[in-house]
Write a structure and sequence with these properties.
Strand content: 15-25%
Shape: globular
Structural class: alpha/beta
Number of helices: 10
Radius of gyration: 21 Å
Strand order of the largest sheet: 1-9-8-7-6-2-3
Number of strands: 13
Largest sheet: 7 strands, mixed
Order of helices and strands: EHEHEEEHEHEEHEHHHEEHEEH
Distance between the termini: 68 Å
């Protein structure tokens, strides 16, 4: 089987891609905000990261912002491609935003990849976690993209077994043959028992695919309920959640909290990082600053957002809601 390679989690799949494809002087376009390993892995391979941000557009009046409101500027994206561009890293659904790239957005990226003969490293580990009737579209399915795309998947995200560390790459043999060289000469082998268990999971899902008792149907339905519960809790305390179309992460705007946690002028630490530390210490609630998902030069451009995870037990979400409700009462107390 030359179109699939099993890896030690999606993390190793990413590592193999960068080591196999990227040489000294190659440029790799990374869409911000990005999963934090992309940048160091590109640099480890000798490449140069080139960053392009998703820019938020104001939602309709009275509506909460959606991850769909964070979009690429077509002209800005086109300007990032050059003769040195070797690849672009696409993460859809996106961690941390939960953005699910639309067909039109994917076509924009695909056209530029074809025009500049660039590869696409497509991190699709959250492919089954899509909400509100949205559809996950593989960029490799678009014209001209199969031969230049490596799809990355994860059993940890697909079956909620992150500790098993089973991932995979899917793509044309002309690309995967180079990944196999890196894989064979680094970890060499993935745990057989874990692979067998994942295979049985897929066999079961093939039999139940699209049916109500399919795990791929049940899991996003359950997580969407948890998402909506967390949204209500955050709104109650005055945060502005950005409704994710996918993944199990939710980003919230904390710009209204500077009266409680004042900004520190000329600080080297982004505001969201200090806020997250303050919130853990004073409220017992944990989140990750969104600035952690940006390159060093851009951290202060998006420093009033924090990322929550809602893939939690109901009791944990209830405890978080209790904290937020108490916080709300403190804010409204005379």
């Amino acid at each position: 089987m030359t179109n699939v390679m099993v890896t030690v989690g999606a993390y190793q799949a990413l590592f193999c891609c960068f080591q196999a494809f990227i040489d000294e002087g190659d440029e790799v376009i990374i869409i911000e905000p990005f999963f934090d390993c992309y940048e160091p892995m590109v640099k480890m391979a000798g490449g140069t990261p080139v960053y392009i941000p998703l820019r938020p557009k104001a939602p309709k009046e009275g509506k909460l912002m959606s991850s769909a409101d964070w979009q690429l500027d077509p002209a800005e994206l086109a300007s990032k491609f050059s003769e040195q561009t070797k690849a672009i890293v696409l993460n859809s659904p996106n961690n941390p935003l939960g953005k699910v790239f639309s067909r039109g957005e994917l076509e924009l990226i695909a056209d530029l990849c074809v025009k500049h003969d660039a590869l696409c490293i497509s991190d699709e580990v959250y492919e089954w976690l899509v909400y509100d009737g949205k559809q996950h579209i593989r960029i490799a399915s678009l014209p001209g993209m199969w031969d230049r795309t490596v799809i990355i998947g994860s059993a940890g995200k697909t079956f909620s077994v992150t500790g098993w560390k089973v991932g995979w790459t899917v793509g044309p043999n002309r690309l995967l043959q180079h990944l196999r060289t890196v894989h064979q000469n680094s970890v060499y082998h993935c745990a057989t028992a874990a692979q067998d268990a994942v295979a049985k999971g897929f066999q079961r899902e093939l039999e139940h695919y699209g049916k109500p008792d399919s795990y791929f149907v049940q899991l996003p339905r359950e997580l969407q309920q948890k998402r909506d519960q967390l949204v209500q809790s955050l709104v109650a305390v005055g945060m502005k959640p950005i409704i994710p179309e996918g993944t199990y992460f939710l980003v919230a705007d904390i710009s209204e909290f500077k009266s409680e946690v004042p900004d520190v002028p000329n600080s080297d630490e982004p505001y969201d990082s200090r806020f997250a530390k303050w919130m853990v210490k004073n409220k017992g609630l944990a989140a990750i600053p969104l600035s952690a998902f940006y390159c060093g030069a851009h951290k202060d451009n998006y420093n009033t957002f924090i990322r929550f995870c809602f893939a939690k037990e109901d009791a944990t979400l209830k405890a978080a809601d209790d904290i937020l409700q108490r916080w709300k009462l403190e804010k409204t107390a005379p």
